[in-house]
Amino acid sequence: MKNLILLTETRHSLPCMTNNNDHDDDIVSIIHNPMADQEDEEFADNDSPVAFHYILSASGNLSAISSNDRILWSMHLDDFISQNSDVNVPSREDRRMNEWFHLSYEETGDHLITLSKSGAIICVSTDGSNAELIGCFDYGIDCASWSADGELLALVTFQPITHEQDDNDIQKEEGDIQSSSRIPVLMTMNTQFEILSEVNLPPHISGEKVSICWNHKTDNQVVAISTLDCQDKIRKIRIFKGESLEHVATSRTEDGSGKMIPNILAHADISWAGSNTSNLLACVQRKGRAGRNVVFLEPNGLQHGGFKLEHRLDHEEVVRLDWNCESDLLAVTLLGGADALDGSEQYGKVQFYHRNNYHWYLKYETCLKQGTKVSHVVFDTIKGYDVSICLQKSNDKFTPPQEWRHYKFCWDVSTTSQDGVAAVIDGSNVNLTMFCKAMIPPPMYASRLTMGCAVIGVSHVPHHHSHLKCHGIDLVAQMSDGSIALCDVSGMSKTSDDVGNGASIIATVDLSKELNNLDNPSVEPVDSTCFRQFTVVDGKVDGDDIFVQILCVACPEVLSNGQGLSRRCDELVQLTVKVSTGQDVIQASVVQCNRIVLEGKVLRMVNWLNEIDREDEYNTMSRSHAIFELVDGSLFEYSLDLDGNTAGTIIPCEAEPMLLEPCPWITGLRSVEDQKLIIGLSSRFRLYLGERQLCNASSSFFLSPSHGFLGYVTLGSRCQLRFLPLKVLLDFDPLMGSDADADTLSDGYEPRNVERGSVLVSILPEKPQVVLQLPRGNLEGVSPRALVLPHIMSLIHNDQYHLALDMMRRQKVDMNLIVDMDPAKYLKGGGLRKLVGQVTAIDHLNLFLASLQDYDVTQWKYRIPSWLFSRDETEMNIESRKSIDFSTKVNQVCTTIRNEMMQMQSDGSCSPDHFFLPILSTFAKQNPPQLQNALELIKEDAILTVSKNSQSKLKSILLSDHAQSSITYLAFLADYELLFDTALGMYDFDLAKAVARNSQMDPKVYLPMLKRLRNLPPYEAKYEVDVKLKRYESALRNLYQLGVPEFDSGNTAEFSENHFDKCKNFIQEHKLYQLGLELFIGYPKWHRQIMLLLAEYLLVETKSELSLAIFLSAKPPCLEGARRAARMCGDYKTFFSCFDSIDTQSEDFHTLAHEVAHEVADGRGGVLSKRESFAAGAKILTDYCNDVEGAVDMLISAQMWFEARRLARLHGEAEIEKHIVDSALAYAKTCLLDFESKAEAFVEANKRYAEVLVIRRKARIEGFAPGEEEKDETGSLFSMASNASNTSIRSSMSTSSVGSVTSMSSVISAGAASTFHLINNEASIRHKSKFNNIGQKKKKKKTSRKERLGLKPGTEEELISLQSRLKENVADQELSDIVSETIRFLSQVGKVSVAMEVYNGYESFKTLVDQNQRERIEKDDQTFQEEQQKARRDGQFYERVTLDCEAEINSLRCTDLPKLIHDLFEYRIDY
For the whole model, what pTM was predicted? Predict the structure, then answer.
């Protein structure tokens, strides 16, 4: 789909060297100086002595040319030979035999090599100071060529035919060979001009041309030579090995018959292509009388296809073939005239052919004037699309005799309009393909425009020129003769036979003729063949006349002053073309021409693109402007004059004054806010946004304003199709841009992998589809997620739900997006009603309902881009989403859409059963499924259907086709077993049978079951159904109703004992105590039994307090059960209140009281604290057992010294009182040891807590959630896999996304796919045999305490463990109270020194904890300040991460002792 675009054209000229009237001074060879910077030719100093070109004329003039065509030095080679050499060069009367024909550059010696037909070989230094005659061949040199590596020179000379050769070696008829015939001799020489080998060829007919060329492979060099044999008068092409000249093959046909290829033309040189075209050798073959074919030969000499020169006129003859270094362009040089080979009025022509999809396209043609021929064509050896063409002109005073033109081409991967119309040039034809209608692979096409001569350029009329497109002006085609054609692509013009179908040519304008006939003396006569890059900038319609403003670039012609200096600055030419449509024949003419001379050469010129299309001032400004780029990368805007009578104005581009490097491919965009955007792709395939590089390797790009994206294809090992939002590009500021925008610009939005070598042809405007051309030439249309998702979101935002739903169905996009885009608008703003009204296909509605899920897809799967909508719309959407509960989204949508569908059916908007199936879908989709309502709806619909059809003879209404199909559909949506159980649970056995028929149930199972249920009494059948469906509450109700008829009618009737036992067993089995109490509330006897059953059940379930309350609530209360419940819950007060006073006097009661006291002291029930439990146990022992000693022991265990002393003195137990004091002293010593151990443990834990805190903060920054850890053997939290998973989280959101470069999926998949594994993967013993145990026995390392506890260093589990240790090792309120009571008691019993030690130990412990906490917090704050300052110095933002536990841990302190204790020790009471 690509076209060859002429970027620049430079016409060079040299002053005339001779005054004769022949063509001895014509340029026969031109080479570029490899030591000069050819990129700097346009900007080189005019006075620079550096030679950029070396030129050789046929007369032997060798010249060095500067960048501005100034001759630096010149040498006449014939004069040099005659003056500085003793060698006698044979002189011939035929001037052609003295012609110089070859010039080459020898890199190793840095000198020039020239060859002449007379046989001379001269070596000239590059500065012209030295020259040397290498040698001379007696019989001349006919042709020569250097090998691809420049190491071998192959040339052809002759030797005369002796009489012995005539008699013995050659079989001929008399008179076939004249005595002047020569035998061609092919020889090879090295760079020292030493003959390596030579071979004699069969005699060649004198006067016929000999051609020679090398292949381009340096590893297998072969040389081909074309001669016309005297023996059979057939031109043959022979192939020889490079150094040895061993014969390899001879040209033969491809049919395998061994015949020679006939009719190979002599006057066309052979040319060998490179490896890109399978190393083919090209030659020209005559086909018929006037036909010409280009034939290709393989290195083995066999013919390998070819093509016909269809775009050659009959009087034109091929004289030369040349390949570029890329081997994708074949230059065919033609000579035309009255007699192509002998006429006087001859002209030259060069055609450039390109092969793609097995078709040869004529992509460009340069046609010269009468009297101007082509003497030499040479491609640049590095830049394959730069070509120099040397001209041969008649010598007169107006035209310089020496002229060559330099062309710079590039490939446009597609010439596609914004409407999706691709134009492909093929000679005089323009092949059109409308991608919006059909994707036709080349070389096929949808329609074709045929011109009068070869087309060299096409330009689409911009989309915002709707007034021109309405009149059928869609395309401007430039032809090689300097004329242009205005074409209709859509078939809207009068010239189209069927308006709206087919393409046609509206009018053709001969610019040279029209411009020279203009009545404007200021306009000089111009040659329109020097125009290029036509661009339509404006147009207007005035009645039947259409005025089209066209802007183009003109290359200046060479000066005719004979001084050899060429103008290098291009001109902008503004043409006003008038198209008159009022007559039957449409006529076009140029009515105005304005020219502006620039200050440089134009590289590319394009139109502005509009962000949107509308008829207003914004659109008018885009119509009257164009942008062009000079070869130095500077950008300018051309503003058209409003009246069109004067030349426009040129100003530097406001968007970007200059690109970082020249870009042959540029595109400009103007937004609604008049923001301007310039996208450029350089020849080094770097994609630029002004001065920012978007991609360092891109093959092509396409800007789509309709979708709001810039799409481009990357190069490299993994090619991707990437998309950049235009709003991000327009708003991006490289100095103030956010990180999110930077990531978007680097990776693009939802990239897609493509085949390597693919190019982007077009992005269709009306649908999210991209056209790619693969390396083989075929087209592929893809719908990438980057275009599909925003397009669908825009459709949903604009309430075009039917289009969005259809596209989501085609592109397999989650349909939850319709609801989740704006749930408030969809559920409450009438969005559902619009959806139901727009979608006519019921299947689409069912598919939408079936895909609903209770989650928000915009939060993780299809995130709504921030650039898609305005900021206000985005904020409103965020606020409205807060009122939506997505956990019940499915139920809300189903309920709302069902009500809308029923409302539309009821108000007559559609038929009554139009939404029948979608309504069933809403019932089945709800959670839980409302299958009963769905079955009831099916039954109602079946009844309504049967009532309308009174003649129905069906046994059951559910056996109708409509009912059966409805049940089948519902069974498809829901589990058939659940559906059958639902129908059975409705106690409608006919409906259950109908459901079972449309499910996968076995009739042998469900038919007997339904039959048995029909024969049972109603309540018993319902009971059986409920039990089967495990609906036990309903089953109990039906079982209760089943026993009601057994009552007598009187008020004194008793419930049947047997039936109650059955109900009681069912209640107890299924724990239906609450329902049983409700059912039997009118029967106190049975009601009390159920209450006791409930209390016993609660007691088993360890709900002893509730069980106690129910035991005592029974009438009468159950004291035995209450005592068991009270003892279990630790309620000793209620337990002892359940005994009579008589019972408390027994010995068994005292034993029981002892047991209960110890149980309470052990904390049974968990109601009391530890100290309170001991106090309660002591009270029981004193009140019910009179056990003072046991009670005191319990109080000592609770450190309740004062209460213990009171009991001891109350009962006069002095020994017990002494025991209390001793226990207090022992506890005091224990406290001192505990204070020290707690302090050490706290300091150690606090130190490790600070280290783990840093690790967990870093983990939170890296994106780890609490509890999310890496399973790395080294224990490191930050492994490569974790980084890879975090960096690729954005790419894994899309189902079509490929993931980021750091994704580890490839490694994982590779390991999973392989069945090979190592016996031992340790590095030291990886390659040892499994029987070699050397180095494997090592002493096991002793595991640490953390490893024994299963704690991994730095993990969340270790952090939680450290928090517990810190809390355990501080003194809480309970410990403070115990220590305070101990200190007061010791001071009262005369142990003041011990009390003082306890006090000081506690205060030291408290001070150490406070100091350690304060130091850790201060160090943490200081670290934060240092990191924050470092980040600010680096220009980064540093945010402090705070964990949830930090505030609690930072507040940990030891509880202060009461003020009384501090006041007590202010006095010196210890003595």
Answer: 0.74
